[in-house]
Amino acid sequence: MKKVLLLNGPNLNLLGTREPATYGSTTLADVEAMFTAEAARLGLAAECFQSNHEGALVDKIHETGRAFAAGESIGVVFNPGAYTHTSVALHDAIKGVGNLPVIETHISNVHQREAFRHHSYISPAAAGIVVGFGTDGYRLALLGLARKAGL
Ligand code: CA2
Predict the structure, then answer these.
(1) Which segments of 61-148 are extended strands (E)?
(2) 3-state helix, strand, coil in the chain (%, to 5)
(3) Fewer C-beta neighbours within 10 Å, C or N terminus of the chain?
(4) What per-residue confidence (pLDDT) applies to 84?
(5) DSSP 4
(6) What is the pLDDT of residue 150?
(7) Domain boundaries, the chain
(8) Positions marked catalytic
């Protein structure tokens, strides 16, 4: 069974506990359970990983790039959190591992928010982008990624 990675960046462990007007009341555990169930429905094994540390996210992208090259993974649904707007390292990691399909996903509509959220270092390296659908966006991103993989 091929794998799919749900990768969440800094502060997304707080999902559902604060700022419900912006991020909703669904917790990260809820999102991961939904993602795992939806992946299973598509015949995929989900792995879920969240970190507040940029290097840990870089390492996970490298690991998944190797799994993709070996035909063991279809790619990543990735919410890089605030690193979206700052991280050349994450941009380089995605580019550096080759063709790994990464679907950049944001819960909020970042383009409706502060100007500093309008630029993404991830988008030029992403295979697709989902923005502004709340936590449903993770499911939409998974469906798009699966479709790109021919599922
Ligand atoms: O809309 C998104 O998904 C974001 O990636 C979320 C990031 C933000 O920096 C991006 O601009 C857009 C912030 C994640 C913080 O998540 C929290 C969730 C609940 C309570 C506090 C923070």
Answers:
(1) 73-79, 102-106, 128-131
(2) 50, 20, 35
(3) N
(4) 99
(5) E
(6) 97
(7) 3-148
(8) 23, 106
Q: Is 82 in the pocket of ligand 1 (CB under 6 A)?
A: yes
Distance (Å) from CA 150 to ligand 1 centroid:
30
Going by C-alpha positions, the residue among 78, 76, 83 that lies closest to residue 99 is: 76
Find tokens 């928010």 and name the residue: 113
Q: Which two tokens stand for residue 5?
A: 């990675």
* CATH code for residues 3-148: 3.40.50.9100
d(CA 46, CA 39) in angstroms, rounded, equals 6
Which residue is closest in CA terms to ligand 1's atom 20? Answer: 18
Nearest protein CA to atom 19 of ligand 1, as residue: 15
Phi, psi of 130 (to 5 degrees): -125, 125
CA distance 79 to 48: 12
> Which residue has the CA at smallest separation from atom 16 of ligand 1?
12
In the beta sheet, which residues pair with residue 46?
Answer: 4
Region 106-126 average pLDDT: 98
